[in-house]
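User:
Hi there, any thoughts?
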Amino acid sequence: MKKSKENSGKKMFAYDGNFYTYTGKIFDLLVVSVYWLLGCIPVVTIGASFSALYAAVTKSVRYDRDTISSQFWKAYKQNLIPSIPLTLIYGGVIFIMLLNIGILDAKTDSLWGLFFIVLYALTILFFIISACYVFPALSRFAMPAGWFVKLSFYMTVRHLPISILLFAMFAVSYLALLNQPAFFLIIPGAVTWVASSMIEPLLDRHMPKEGDKEKNEGGTE
C-alpha cells in the first residue's frame, strides 16, 4: 500500500503528471489574460483580442494544440481586419443606446421616457449577449460581417438558457474586476475556458455549409 502511494506521488509530480499539467494550464491562463489586455489597448482591436483569447484558450489550453502565445497572436493577426467592422457595430450600438439613456434620464421623467430607457437597456443587454457568440464565431469561421451578426443574434435567441448563463458569468466577472483589478491576471482566461465548453458545441451545430470556409484548421477536432 505504501509503495502504491509513493508511485502515485511520483506519477503526479512527473513531467507529464497532473501537477505539471494543471499548473501549466493555469500559467497559460495568466499569460493569455495579459495578452488579451494588451490586445484591447488600441480600443478598435477589442474584437480581435476577444476572438484571439477565445481561440487560444480553446485550442491551446483545452485541446493542447500548440503554445498559448502562438495561438493567441496567430488568431489576433488573422482576425484583426475582419473584427473591426464587428467591433464598430457592437460598440457603436451600445454607445448610442447608453447616450440615449443618459439624455432621457436627464431630460424627461414621463412614462414614455421610462419606456424608451427600458427599451434601450434591453437592446444593450441583447447586444452584449450576442457579442458572447460573435467573436468566438469569428475565431472559427470566415464569413462576411453581416453573417456573423445574424448568426450571433440567432444563437442568442435559439440558445437562450445558455445565453443568460453566459451573460450572468460575464457580469459577475466584470463586477469582480471592478472590485479587484488584480483579477485581470486570471479572470479573462479562466472565464473564457468555462465559456468555451458551452459555446464550442453550439458553434459546431451552426458550422457554415459547404462552400463557406472554416478558419484555423477546422475548429477543435
Q: What stands out?
A: The radius of gyration is 20 Å. The beta strands are 141-142, 213-214.
